Amino acid sequence: MTRHVPKIELLLSPGCAHAEEAVNLVQKTLAEVKVAAEVSETLIDTKKMAKELKFLGSPTIRVDGRDIEPGAEERQDYGLG
Q1: Strands 7-12, 66-67: parallel, antiparallel or unpaired by DSSP?
Q2: Burial class of 56 by CB neighbour count within 10 A (0 to 12, 13 to 18, 19+)
Q3: Residue 1 reports pLDDT greater than 80
Q4: pLDDT in tens, 7-52
Q5: Residue 34 confidence (pLDDT)
Q6: What are the structural domains of the chain?
Q7: H or E element: which one contains 13?
Q8: Do 75 and 56 contact (CB within 8 A), yes or no?
Q9: Confidence of residue 80 (pLDDT cuts 50, 70, 90)
Q10: Would you give the end-to-end CA distance of the chain in angstroms?
């Protein structure tokens, strides 16, 4: 039986004031619940990239491709700033 390893994505814009806090929150949460996960950080620095990745704002945290922010799936206001 193969165990599922969650994929956690942090999408961040340049100069995001909350980036470090978001990274620390993810790490702390994973340690508390004792879950191993694949964690990646992506810097979103162009409007094109923001649209392609459906970037709603910084920081964005996704688990297995789903934004953790309630209601994010209904939004389409992708972009920077």
Answers
A1: unpaired
A2: middle
A3: no
A4: 999 999 999 999 999 999 999 999 999 999 999 999 999 999 999 9
A5: 95
A6: 7-68 (3.40.30.10)
A7: none
A8: yes
A9: confident
A10: 44
HSE, side-chain direction, 13 A CA sphere, residue 54:
11
Global pTM?
0.91
Sign for the CA dihedral angle at 41, 44, 45, 46 comes to: positive
Which structure tokens are listed for 21? 């806090």
Query: What's the CA gap between 64 and 23, in Å, rounded?
Result: 16
β partners of residue 8: 39, 63
Cα angle: 53, vertex 59, 64; to 5 degrees:
55
The Cα–Cα gap between 49 and 55 comes to 8
